[in-house]
Specification:
The chain has 422 residues and is an alpha+beta fold. The chain has a domain of 220 residues. 44% of the residues lie in helices and 15% in strands. It contains 9 helices and 15 strands. The strands form 6 sheets. A 5-stranded antiparallel sheet has the order 12-11-8-7-13. β7 and β8 form a beta hairpin. The longest helix is centred in the C-terminal third of the chain and has 104 residues.
């Protein structure tokens, strides 16, 4: 048997030399090692899903939706078999933990899309998820006010500052992204049929209370204060360790992955972005973020300019109204003075005319008395006046009284008739 093997090798070498082909010499026997299956990692201290790159999400989420290249974000995941009014963070409930508010949901992709990465919306794809590798209890922006609590998915370009706090520009988040529930019902299960969506009145009554930060390499998602929720709901809020919730949720994912093992060849076929593409995507994301910020700033400037214009127009209208009122008042005072002066002039004129008429009448009366006195004086004197003379004098006085009745009084010093001469 050994001689046969040697002969086979010599024949093979001779055949290669004759045909011009050189074959590799047989080396040590190879040992076949089967490809490793997806196992749970212990990098976080308990069995969970191992996420080292964005490509680690491709295979687990493929059965629940599809991957599409969306703008500058690259490959993004779009959920399948969902209702037309579906939106993220609208089917589940909030659980208080030692790392803030944790979003729990029965949706099979909840472990990934609500605790890693961010959501955004487009008219072409609807809601789509941008994968990222940092874990958090929830990636949402919070609003509160008017007896309501609301939240919206954080946009993908939001980044942590050097101090460890997440920088959130709420102007970039569309009002249609927020959902609201009453404070007293915040601890109840959330359903799309119970939330309030895109209500401008409620949004205008609320303020941003987002407070997401990193403490000891752990993302803390602070939203509404526990005391506020307890007072509004009437229930005691008991915080649980966030590690327990994460362990429970990711353990179910691990079980599903073990039930459907993936070969190395299938895993290699998942799309992986190169470093250059990742850098290009990052640049595009930053450019898009700057564009959104510029648009938000322009919109804010436009609103400020509009408010300033409205205020200036209101002040101008008030000024004109005051001027018109002052002018009308001045005109009324001028007219009143004119009427008063005219009435005074007419009164003075009537007084003068009355005085003149009284003077004329007085003069006439005086002349009449003078004539009568003269006639009496021309009669022959016979001592004392007789009875006829006395009667004439009485008649004369009576006549004078009738004439003076109802007429202005005569002058203070009327001419006195001269007594008859003796």
């Amino acid at each position: 048997m050994a001689a046969g093997k040697i002969g086979f090798v010599l024949c093979t070498a001779l055949l290669g030399a004759l045909t011009g082909c050189i074959y590799p010499q047989p080396g040590p026997p190879r040992v076949y090692v089967p490809p490793p299956q997806v196992e749970a990692s212990v990098s976080v201290g308990f069995p969970g899903v191992e996420i080292r790159a964005e490509s680690d999400f491709y295979e687990p989420l493929s059965s629940y939706g599809r991957w599409e290249v969306v703008g500058s974000y690259g490959r993004c995941w779009i959920p399948g078999r969902v209702e037309a009014d579906w939106r993220p963070y609208s089917e589940g409930y909030w659980q208080r933990t030692d790392a803030g508010w944790y979003w729990a949901s029965d949706e099979p992709w909840a472990w990934a899309t609500y605790h890693y990465g961010r959501w955004d919306f487009s008219a072409q794809f609807g809601w789509y998820w941008v994968p990222q590798t940092q874990w958090a209890p929830a990636w949402v922006s919070w609003h509160r006010g008017g007896g309501y609590v609301g939240w919206a998915p954080l946009y993908p370009s939001a980044r942590f500052a050097r101090g460890g706090s997440l920088e959130v520009d709420v102007r970039v988040i569309s009002p249609r992204a927020y959902v609201f529930v009453e404070e007293r019902r915040f601890l109840e299960p959330v359903r799309r049929s119970t939330v309030v969506v895109n209500n401008t009145t409620i949004i205008n009554k609320t303020v941003n209370i987002t407070n997401i930060k990193v403490v000891n390499n752990t993302v803390i998602n602070e939203g509404p204060r526990t005391q506020v929720i307890e007072q509004a709901s009437g229930h005691k809020v008991q915080a649980v360790p966030v590690r327990e919730l994460r362990r429970k949720q990711e353990a179910e994912v691990v079980v599903r992955q073990r039930a459907t093992p993936v070969t190395r060849q299938e895993k290699v076929q998942a799309p992986i972005r190169s470093e250059a593409a990742a850098r290009a995507t990052k640049v595009q994301q930053e450019s898009q973020q700057r564009a959104k910020e510029a648009e938000a700033k322009a919109q804010e400037q436009l609103q400020r300019s509009t408010k300033d214009a409205e205020r200036a127009a209101q002040l101008e209208s008030q000024r004109r109204a005051k001027e018109a009122a002052a002018k009308a008042q001045e005109e009324a005072q001028r007219n009143a003075k004119g009427l008063e002066k005219k009435a005074q002039q007419e009164s003075q004129q009537r007084a003068k005319e009355s005085e003149k008429q009284a003077q004329v009448e007085s003069q006439k009366t005086a002349k009449g008395l003078e004539k009568k006195a003269q006639r009496v004086s021309e009669q022959p004197a016979k001592g004392r006046p007789d009875a006829s003379e006395k009667g004439a004098t009485k008649l004369l006085k009576k006549d004078l009284k009738k004439k003076d009745k109802g007429k202005p009084s005569p002058p203070e010093n009327p001419p006195v008739p001269r007594p008859p001469s003796p």
